[in-house]
Amino acid sequence: MKMIQAIVRPERSADILSELADAGFPAVTKIDVAGRGKQRGIKVGDIIYEEISKELLLIVTEDENVDEMIKIILKKSRTGEKGTFGDGKIFISPVEKAYTISSGESVL
After folding, report:
1. pLDDT tens digits in sequence order for the chain, 108 residues long
2. Structural domains of the chain, ranges and CATH numbers in brackets
3. Are 5 and 56 in contact (CB under 8 A)?
4. Of the four, 5, 11, 57, 101, which is 20 to 30 A from 90 by CA?
5. Strands 42-44 and 47-49, bridge-based pairing
6. CA nearest 52: which of 33, 80, 38?
């Protein structure tokens, strides 16, 4: 199993979640976050925003679903045809164990 962590623009998350659900992947945890990338925030006029609002999508899935889910996230996260700074990042990590809290049972 893998965990996909996608940091995306807040205005893109609804489209991402809808497309994932339509493809058969409805389970997700969504967290409001703030951060910055290499460009160190954004300057609008005379104002510099050190941290930019984003949403973190956490998804645990079977290994064979990862490529399809990444394609969906990339497609729905990009601004414009080629994308731009601030569109986000996707991280993939192995999941060693998982438990359902209510039952205490392992799900792996």
Report:
1. 999 999 999 999 999 999 999 999 999 999 999 887 777 767 778 877 777 889 999 999 999 999 999 999 999 999 888 877 788 999 999 999 999 999 999 987
2. 2-94 (3.30.70.120)
3. yes
4. 101
5. antiparallel
6. 33
Place of tokens 């050190």: 50
Q: In this structure, what token pair is assigned to residue 30?
A: 């969504």
DSSP 79: S
Q: Which residues of 79-97 are buried (b: 16+ CB within 10 A; e: fewer)?
A: eeeeeeeebbeeeeeeeee
Residue type for position 96: E
Looking at residue 95, its pLDDT comes to 96
**Residue in the structure block whose two tokens are 């060693």:** 96
Distance in angstroms (rounded) separating the CA atoms of residues 72 and 97:
26
Tokens of 99: 């438990």
